[in-house]
Write a structure and sequence with these properties.
The complex is a heterodimer of chains A (about 110) and B (about 120). Chain A has about 110 residues and is mainly beta. In chain A, about 0% of the residues lie in helices and about 45% in strands. The chains are: A mainly beta (about 110), B mainly beta (about 120).
Amino acid sequence: DIQMTQSPSSLSASVGDRVIITCRASQSISSYLNWYQQKPGKAPKLLIYAASSLQSGVPLRFSGSGSGTDFTLTISSLQPEDFATYYCQQSYSTPPEYTFGQGTKLEIK
Amino acid sequence: QVQLVESGGGVVQPGRSLRLSCAASGFIFSNYAMHWVRQAPGKGLEWMALISYDGNNIYYADSVKGRFTISRDNSKNTLYLQVNSLRAEDTAMYYCARDMDRSGWNWFDPWGQGTLVTVSS
């Protein structure tokens, strides 16, 4: 089984900060990596697919990079609406097994 | 617009069963594979099951294999999850999500709002 580990688990930042969240896979997953944002009481929302492709409608301040085992989600300039929990997810496994990271909670400093 | 609406959750005693539904609209349901994902209170996301567009291919997470059954009725644009022998640790919000596939890459979009299952005596 492929394990996904995010760091940090929680993060305090201020509006306007640049934030980087990392996700590490227990084995190489090429670029089969997605990022989701979840706000309290809401369903997850897709931000990034295939490691670096921005979902339509997602602000350009969000970007993703990486391949193999190490990936990052970068928010270039935090906005008030970005405070949420972020999850990475691998879609590499065959047969399918879509493992999520444990989440990174982004809080206001 | 594309929409997924789950229903069927509630409070259920340990050992009992429940059938969750996910009604799809705004897209051609029969063209897409679908997933169930759950989230225990205060915890992370756990993928549970995938069903292909035609129902012929089904995959489960090891944690629910043998107790949960995913199915679909394309004539009703509805996805189902039959959950049996419920345990306290099955208490969670259950989400359905559409599978998006492009050249072998897969992601989940959109997600429904979820239906809450509470297992308690």
